[in-house]
Amino acid sequence: MLKFSAILPLTAVTVLLTACTSAPIDKTSVAIPPVTSAMPAPVTTGTTAAAIKNTDILKPVSFSTLPGWQQDDLTEAWPAFMASCSALRTKPDWREPCAIAKEVEAKDNAAVRLFFESFFVPHQVSNPDGTGEGMITGYYEPLLKGSRKRGGAFQAPLYRTPPDLLTIDLSGLYPELKNLRLRGRVVGNKVVPYASRAEILPALAGKELVWVDDAIDAFFLQIQGSGRVALSDTNEVIRLAYADQNGHPYKSIGRYLVDKGELKLEQASAQGIKEWLLKNPSRQDELLNVNPSVVFFKEEKILDPAIGPKGALGVPLTGQRSIAIDPQFLPLGVPVFLSTTQPNSTRALQKLVVAQDTGGAIRGAVRADYFWGFGNEAGEQAGRMKQRGMLWVLLPKSIN
What we know:
This protein has 400 residues and is α+β, with helices and mostly antiparallel strands. It has twelve helices and 17 strands. Mean pLDDT is 85; it is low at 1-46.
């Protein structure tokens, strides 16, 4: 077995670290990738609830200070919370609340509210600079039309992980690198960064999982991180789940169009980008190659169409009750009260959600990607969502 800690030269580590570092938050692109399309980290390596308890980004408050807490139907968040318990119940601070949660009447809003108020303390999340507001974007699970064989309208490929892609975890030697993965390939006796989008696609022949009928939809599927494909040749619907990524940081094609003067800031939504591409088909490769990140997929059967894709926590996401967060600041699995507004609106969106995913462009303490669910309507909402918002993390009372 190769021991990369012994053979990786310092220069290679530096280059690869650069390749796997995510881009800054981009306020001109609504379609921000969840971690399923970037660098998922197991919950065992992420920030723990106890760790963030002692940081300056959290301030304990009472439930009465949460705007909209009393109005929220908490029973809608209960399935997402119970899914988190399935992943966290063996952790000391979660054993008691997760055990008692099994006895709570899931359809009784008052009982669910009493449970959270009895076993959790809300903490307002602040950015390191002390500000309490951040960016809230949206994502969803799309449905594409495809085929297992190339032909006719189905000319845009989606790929499985290539066998020469190395994913290297150095956190065992360098704890400060937790939640980061080095990705590269071996050339001779060196490990070098993996190819970017413009370089990689011609070399992936034979690695296709499916072919879909729209290259733009294929690109945005990589941004969403997972999705469903209706296969015309087999009459089945499959899920393509995140498998890996080439190690290059996500770069916003919306920002590129704004910087080039092609779109105004308010037009740089997923819908606006698609409209621009339809009007400028000859510039499609130019635009898509702005983002060097390539996501690879694995196929999963859909046993229950009502169940969402798995997030970074390893449990299925719940539409409008799951969010992606930055695990450098907040722990996966925790309940979070979100206060923001509906897409392109001043109408309040205030509800209990659960941090079950992460994202390559989800960077910062007060930063979340709101999972809208499956299908076209969810996609319309996610594509327009770029709102300001606030977060309160609910931590078990047992955490001192």
